[in-house]
Design goal:
single chain; 181 residues; Rossmann fold; 7-stranded mixed beta sheet; 7 strands; globular
Length: 181
């Protein structure tokens, strides 16, 4: 059996933690692959992106599905929209594939949002983050996230890093945090 890519592994983790009774968040909708997956396993999904182009692409991909809401706003503002408990959150950081590479997620905003997610996610819930350290802002995000997540209280959270260590050019890797209580 081949090893799972970081995206495949992120979906495996989400599938193991989310049921049809749960709410999930896609905090970086992009082209809509993660939100499409989440609509198949969750009761309802909130999706956030700052780019109209991303939301349009995702809406096309989600045609025929009804258990989601796309929101044109920064992921930092998710608490303004999500007023119910949620069991999972996913980030796919960086820039919109096929879009403007100068528009990227920002390290400080990402860290602020991850903190808020981990404080508000239901016990037993999981936050999955795909990190792309191959560009300058991605490297900053990577460093900030690793520093923060490494210091989480181990009696409250389990945190892991999944990466291929023999690939060149700063390949993406996955961070996952499960809230235990």
């Amino acid at each position: 059996m081949p090893m799972l890519s970081v995206i495949e592994f992120s979906h495996r983790l989400l599938q193991e933690h989310v049921t049809k009774e749960d709410v999930a968040l896609d905090l970086t909708v992009g082209n809509g692959h993660d939100i499409l997956f989440l609509t198949q396993v969750a009761r309802f999904v909130y999706g956030f992106d700052i780019q109209a182009e991303a939301l349009e692409r995702a809406a096309t991909r989600l045609a025929g599905r009804e258990n989601y809401l796309l929101i044109k706003d920064s992921h930092e503002n998710f608490p303004d929209y999500v007023k119910e408990g949620f069991k999972a959150a996913v980030f796919n950081l960086g820039y919109l594939p096929g879009g403007d590479k100068t528009i990227t997620t920002k390290a400080e905003a990402t860290l602020k949002t991850v903190r808020a997610v981990l404080e508000n996610i239901l016990p037993g819930g999981i936050c999955v983050i795909v990190v792309y350290p191959g560009h300058p802002e991605g490297k900053r995000e990577s460093n900030l996230l690793l520093e923060y997540l490494s210091g989480l209280e181990q009696t409250r959270y389990q945190a892991l890093k999944y990466e291929f260590i023999n690939q060149i050019n700063d390949p993406p890797y996955l961070l996952a945090v499960r809230r235990m209580k």
